[in-house]
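Supplementary notes for students who missed Thursday's class. We covered one full example, reproduced here. Read the sequence, then the structure, then the short commentary at the end.
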Amino acid sequence: MSRKIAVLGGTGPAGRGLALRWARAGEAVIIGSRDPARAQNTAAEIASRVGAGAHVEGMENSAACEATDLLVLTVPFEGHALLLKQLERHFRPGSVLIDSTVALAAAVGGRPTRTLGVWQGSCAQQAAELLPEGVTVAAAFHNISADASNGDQPIESDVIVCSDDKRARQLASELAEKIPGIRAVDGGKLENSRILEQITALLIGINIRYKAHATGIRITGLPSTAVGSH
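Structure (token representation):
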């Protein structure tokens, strides 16, 4: 266990599921929340599911930011920019932020099957613009079902990782492959993250139409080489 992973917004279904999977993989996890008591309760619930040896703690988001340089953002779109502005002075120099936010129209009362136009192009690009200099961004984990990540079975899906920074891409890919069943796929530059967000809306629509629970996507025909070596 060589690092701590702070999951900002970790009390929601998406953040809680990722935190659970990483805690099971032996990682030290910090649950971040606006409400430290809620973060601590979520951390205790995850620790009880993981069992002996779990390393999970809960903190207010700014304290979680200050505690590690590896962060995963899992907040709804409506709170995305505001939270990053509030946390600006709390990021450690050289931190990596992995952003899984999707600008679903449901955030402003619209339909969950389409995305909103983000001025910068995507939520991850918005994050890159708002973060202090020296903090790098990767986009990942958009298309993993929260129900699946909160479960116990392997997740048969790829996680596409987009970033302009090699180290950020590598760290996001390593975290993805800590989850049984998941393979990381290099999705190229951060600007491609806008496509990942649209895929999320597409998957939601497919699940609605088929009354199904598709848990992710697979890219076929790729070599077995890990994304981190690209």
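Commentary. The two ends are 25 Å apart (CA to CA). Residues 4-229 form a domain with the Rossmann fold fold (CATH 3.40.50.720). If anything here is unclear, bring it to office hours.
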